[in-house]
Amino acid sequence: MAVSRLPFPLTLTGDGIILREWRSEDLDDLVRMLDEPEIARWSPMPSPFDVEAGIAYLKRCYQNRVTGQRIQLAITTDGGRPVGEVLLFGVDLGLREAELGYLVDVHERRRGLASGALSVLSRYAQDSLHLGRLLLRIDPRNASSTAVARRCGYRLTGEAPILQEGPHGSSRLDTWELVEGQSDGRRDRQKNVAARRYGRRT
Ligand SMILES: CC(C)(COP(=O)(O)OP(=O)(O)OC[C@H]1O[C@@H](n2cnc3c(N)ncnc32)[C@H](O)[C@@H]1OP(=O)(O)O)[C@@H](O)C(=O)NCCC(=O)NCCS
């Protein structure tokens, strides 16, 4: 049965990645990372993202973590400096589904970090939280995010796009899904993200 309260604290490892809880000492790294045009364009972050926004963000994150509402973890390679974030939210226990999201520091992109982090959290959501259907909402113009979804075995559903207005333009979010009992091929692709991750550094 799916859990009713998401576990806290949590550390998840795999694919050369360590996902850990955010800490107050991460404030400077968080502000530097989130105050970035692509993140402002494709995610619902305040922009500009300043220290005040960072403090509010970490506070809300902590509240959501202790109350078991969300999983919101810093992406790291060694448990230290954060290089991104991956989230699980909007858990529907009746439908056994939840939505996931991710972002990576502009200086750390195209190293497989988002794919690795999404794979690790998706596996945890399926195997430990027993969520049967995982969802991503992505604007088709966001090429890097759709590539991450595909690489982790998610597939595009035929659901109607969700229209969203943001400070930097409108978005039409497609729904992607990863369903329990997926084909072995897809599971293998998810597991093999790490191997490909080390094959490319640009
Ligand atoms: C989307 C995002 C998280 C991807 O992070 P990342 O760590 O660079 O992703 P990965 O390295 O795992 O990339 C996986 C694949 O995406 C593709 N990709 C990455 N960046 C790309 C780009 N700019 N254009 C086209 N494809 C891209 C590549 O195919 C890559 O695999 P490859 O390098 O082996 O070919 C990052 O670009 C980001 O933070 N964007 C802003 C926030 C955002 O859009 N979040 C998602 C909202 S839905």
UniProtKB/TrEMBL annotation:
<dbReference type="InterPro" id="IPR016181">
    <property type="entry name" value="Acyl_CoA_acyltransferase"/>
</dbReference>
<feature type="region of interest" description="Disordered">
    <location>
        <begin position="180"/>
        <end position="202"/>
    </location>
</feature>
<dbReference type="InterPro" id="IPR051908">
    <property type="entry name" value="Ribosomal_N-acetyltransferase"/>
</dbReference>
<dbReference type="InterPro" id="IPR000182">
    <property type="entry name" value="GNAT_dom"/>
</dbReference>
<dbReference type="Pfam" id="PF13302">
    <property type="entry name" value="Acetyltransf_3"/>
</dbReference>
<protein>
    <submittedName>
        <fullName>GNAT family N-acetyltransferase</fullName>
    </submittedName>
</protein>
<feature type="domain" description="N-acetyltransferase">
    <location>
        <begin position="17"/>
        <end position="182"/>
    </location>
</feature>
